From TrEMBL, chains A, B:
The keyword Cell cycle does not apply. This is PLP-dependent aminotransferase family protein. One of its GO terms (molecular function) is transaminase activity. Keywords: Aminotransferase, Pyridoxal phosphate, Transferase. Residues 37-389 form the Aminotransferase class I/classII large domain. It comes from Paenibacillus mendelii.
Length: 400, 400
């Protein structure tokens, strides 16, 4: 008898990520990718990482051992220092380091929900977080949202109705829309969730990628003010600000919640190695991260502006977007009736990729939307890429 | 209204690991740990890792980017070469790299089971794997086992009765018993599972840590012979053979199963950084790993023999063990009626820790059992540690 493999129904139902599919479709072609979510490679601080690694190796064999589930303590301490400077007072014990941003969301969900629990999300919202929610069997319900964030009336209505386990938000330059929540909406959601005793997961991977270094966007975590007994769990990562390869993110909030997340992590990955964390710790001691972030912000703004200029020059009727203030993405609204998944197949033929918007919607996708990445292509590539994209769009609009 | 945190019932029910508890109890004391599962720190190949990292950094900024979910291809290719030399013919596409051994088990379970699915395990079996099973809501059923592995009659009876999703085994120097399955039992289980169409997860983290370099222990994977449509998923790690900090393990088997595991990993951690994998890849190109493994085997055998000698010298009546042929642990049977958890509390007072055996049993623990680690203490520490342990045991046996 041959083995009949049985798969988890939750995993079986997961759609293969459209981001990855479009990347694969373009493999082996002379294709320009506006589909990815990679940081600009030329700004990755290789020398600083190399020097930091050198210091770690000089510290002896202990650097190659296992470490605590909670993560390397000196890095947690340093991180607390950085966060304090941003008005977030936190103790290393209120924090757990994770293998990046997505594993952080996964651990939060595993610790704080049951299959069938409800999570409220912005509409649209981060595709990879949606996949984490589906992997864990959650019921995902989108809250009506506009360019300023979730609409508070709808949020309150859905909280009353569903008593969600979590409300998941990305208030700064979220993937895919790059929307920035207004201060009013931030305060509104914190107050609403406090009133109903509901926990917010504030996911902030892009917060440091702002185009105006002086701009200040208060985190929901700092608006809440209270760590112990508070209604906000905050999570972020060094993947976008330093380097993806150093695989380090964190979650912070009420100590009992962090303890439960630690318990979930202990079961899944009891004694992680922490070479990445040690390298990051050494790097942060010597590397001027804030200057580096200003450099990143400046380059990304230039690229975003170049992309906007190129799109405007194409004079594509029915195509619109809101200018991002940070992050990595430009969110396009395409002409009514244009299905971005069909457009992608055409674009691939012409040598450019992007991510269609549908999979970012938990329900009822707006099919005439698309996410363009502007961080990882050079000026020249982008010029060619947008021309090809415009060409594909025109082909569709000419038809209708 | 203050937030009432709600926790996942599965995580809430997880016991905090006894290994970690005993480690914590001993913190801050002049304590000798026989509780851990750390490799001998003096043999960690720091220089080789440092040189490998140097080569990775010289390859350019791309080393700091994201990589494929399946893991760094050149490492998968090299690994296939190593495995072929051991009679396991495998293609890089039949394999996924993971962040170590435990995350591998977690992904397998997420991809191939539902909450409530049955997994059969040896009795006793690896504590951290039990925690992964509980985290994922599995029903864990132990198969009667002796020093040679699972008893085939009971395995067959339970397979018929429960139609398990998985049979989980550690045939080489398993944690905690260090038992080595006989060739007959290995063949027996493969045949039985093939007959019933049931998937075996062969977890082999310790297989390379054998005391007799010439000893050959055929893997269930090679006994099965068939990768596509086969009944064995094999998983192992570089954590014990090279270094824990390089956090790299792998799973191999039928390509469709690997694809489903990849899908689960995509959802949880879509685009991992792979600095660790790149370092490991470079290391394996230049470092004589097999010579290194012989060195490890030799040191561990010396330490194991020293531990045995010390235990024998203490002439503890009612204490017995089976001499390990590899791995990191000595599994003690204590006098009838002696509860190892009570013994641990006494031992901590005397300045030594170990892991009580109960949590390694899925059901009905044998309380008079204990796991001693012999890999990470020096000769002198071990001498003192075993004397203290004997002292604690004598105190208990004197009382009865």
């Amino acid at each position: 008898m041959s083995v009949k493999y049985r798969y988890s129904s939750k995993v079986d139902r997961l759609q293969s990520s459209a981001v990855r599919d479009s990347l694969k479709m373009a493999l082996g072609r002379e294709s320009i990718s506006l589909a990815g979510d990679l940081p600009a490679e030329e700004l990755l601080p290789l020398d600083a990482v190399k020097e930091a690694a050198g210091r770690v190796f000089r510290s002896g064999n202990g650097a190659l051992q296992y470490d605590l589930t909670e993560g390397y303590l000196p890095l947690r301490e340093q991180l607390c220092g950085r966060l304090a400077a941003k008005g977030m007072t936190i103790d290393p014990d209120d924090m757990i380091l994770t293998g990046g941003s997505r594993p952080a969301i996964d651990l939060i969900v595993r610790a704080l929900t049951e299959p069938g629990s409800v999570v409220l999300v912005e509409n649209p919202t981060c595709l990879t977080s949606l996949q984490v929610f589906h992997l864990n069997g959650l019921q995902v319900i989108p809250v009506e949202s506009d360019k300023d964030g979730m609409m508070m009336e709808d949020a309150e209505r859905l909280i009353r109705r569903h008593k969600p386990a979590l409300v998941y938000v990305v208030p700064n330059f979220g993937n895919p829309t790059a929307r920035v929540w207004t201060a009013q909406r931030r305060r509104g959601l914190v107050e609403c969730c406090r009133r109903h005793g509901v926990l917010i997961v504030e996911d902030d991977p892009y917060g440091e990628l702002k185009f105006d270094a002086k701009a200040r966007f208060p985190t929901l975590f700092s608006i809440e003010g209270q760590v112990s007994g508070g209604c906000v769990l905050y999570t972020s990562t060094f993947s976008k600000s330093v380097a993806p390869a150093l695989q380090t993110g964190w979650v912070m909030g009420d100590r009992n919640v962090i303890r439960m997340i630690t318990k979930a992590k202990q079961a899944a990955d009891p004694e992680p190695g922490t070479l990445d964390q040690r390298i990051l710790d050494q790097l942060l001691r010597h590397f001027p991260l804030d200057i580096h972030l200003r450099k990143i912000g400046k380059l990304y703004r230039q690229r975003m502006q170049h992309m906007q200029t190129l799109l405007r020059e194409q004079e594509l009727s029915g195509v619109s977007w809101i200018e991002p203030q940070g992050g990595m993405f430009l969110w396009l609204e395409l002409p009514d009736g244009l299905d971005a998944e069909a457009l992608l197949r055409c674009a691939v033929m012409k040598g450019v990729t992007f991510v269609p918007g549908s999979p970012f919607y938990a329900l009822e996708p707006k099919r005439n939307t698309a996410r363009l990445n502007f961080t990882s292509t050079s000026r020249d590539q982008m010029t060619v890429g947008i021309a090809r994209l415009a060409d594909a769009i025109s082909e569709f609009t000419a038809r209708s």
